[in-house]
Amino acid sequence: MPSELPDPVRRSMFAIGCIAMGAATAGFLAATVRFFVPNVLYEPSRRFDIGAPSDFPPGGAATFLPDWRLYVFNGTDGFYAISSVCTHLGCNVRRGGPGFECPCHGSQFDESGQVVQGPAPDPLAWYALSLSPHAQLVVDLDQQVTPEFRLRA
Amino acid sequence: MNQSTPGSMAAWLDGVRRSVSRVGWPVTDKDRAAAMISSLFLHIHPARVSRHVLKPTYTFALGLIAGILFLVLSVTGLALMLYYVPYPPEAYRSMKDLQFVVTFGIVLRNMHRWSAHAMVAIVFVHMCRVFWTGSYKPPREFNWVVGVLLLLLTLGLSFTGYLLPWDQLAFWAITVGTNIAAHAPVVGEQMKFLLLGGHVIGPMTLLRFYVLHCVILPLAMLLLVSLHVWRVRKDGLSGAATQASPEEEVAGVFPASTKTYGLMALSKRPRASVEARDPNDEVFAWPHLLYRELLVALAVIVALHVVSLVFMAPLEEMADPTRTPNPAKAPWYFLGLQELVHYSTLVGGVIVPAVLVLALLIIPYVDRDPKGSGRWFAPERRITNSIFTALVALFVGLTIVGTLFRGANWAWVWPWR
After folding, report:
1. What pLDDT was estimated at residue B239?
2. Which of A133, A137, A136, A125 is nearest to A79 (CA)?
């Protein structure tokens, strides 16, 4: 049957071609974005040991580990580690008052890292502690814990 | 050739000259037009320009100055790349080399640094000029959008360059800057990870910033600057008034145009730029525009040399991730944002910058009334100009507060104490 309209087969082939082309482009873009995500990070390990439990004085005094940006406490009920990275813009908080103070924008945190004052949106991070087979304290920065966390060593 | 007389030698040399440049030193008006049109480098100028746009107080040559600064930054940047190693801690050592070992290295570095600061400021002021003269009105809406993108690119170039010296100033400014970006909802943390190439600022970050700073962003800049200039050329040079101001009419400086002709179906060019081509109002770009441009370029380069010889670019001790300086400040053009972030992270770091950029991008499509274009502070635009001026004043005010009035712990200080 002669018709003025375009051949429906050609029309649907064209549509399939366009969809395939679009999908290929989307895949290509996704692959490009994925390329920019590094698979190996040449940076300090996110899980590391910080020394024997006996290195940390008991009685709840904080030990600051500048290289790891961590405060480690040996409390009466166990060990715990609080990050010194301010949740506002990433400066190092320092001990001040009963808890911590950030020098950059004046955020203040209590001794468990909860925000008392200032622009910090979140409390300081708590990281999981564990004991290695060699009786070393191990911190895992990829494992955040609640302020109830204590490691009995 | 061996039998040539001095006369034919001159003719031969003239032939060589003609093969390089078809038009000689222009003497006639026809040659003056041809000089502009037939040169790759000059043909971004029209052959003739309106006298209104040549008035220094109309544009203050700000776009031209921004372009010259970009050129200076490209040349000095290429020179610095010959000594710079984008890997810590060699990056910092190469800065020390540039400062103390390389002949004229310190001058080149100073010039690169101060030009970069100047470019951020000039591009911003250029944007204000275009707004206050209503030059984003049709047919130049899209070129305003390109201009906003160029402002963002300028900030990006300056920000990525800020990390490269790998000193304390660089490290903590980028820490604060990237953490402001990380507060963006949903994608903030992922964007920060991509930008840093990891969780912390390290060798990967330096390499990424280096490639962005030296290749990706400058290429994007070149592309958009070409588009920007091309559109200026196609849409007409600046939104200069086609009619003289009442005072000028009375003084007979610029006789008012009485011609209003549109080419209608013959041309797709917008009416406004057709009307602007009033032959009584135009002068030849050679020499009137060209000499002014050379003069501005000379002044800019002299000023940069003086500043670079007198003021040293800062270089603090090597970056130390374990020791935060107090206060830690972002680059000065982000200190307005940092001041806002000090009150609220979400408002200062996300909502305000997003709304500002969005508002800048859509303003020419919202404010389409063609009245008041091509004049400074046109009375028809009093409300629009007032809102814009208030926002600019607020932003500049916050930047000044963040830069000068904030000390340790971000507490208020008086700069003169």
Report:
1. 53
2. A137
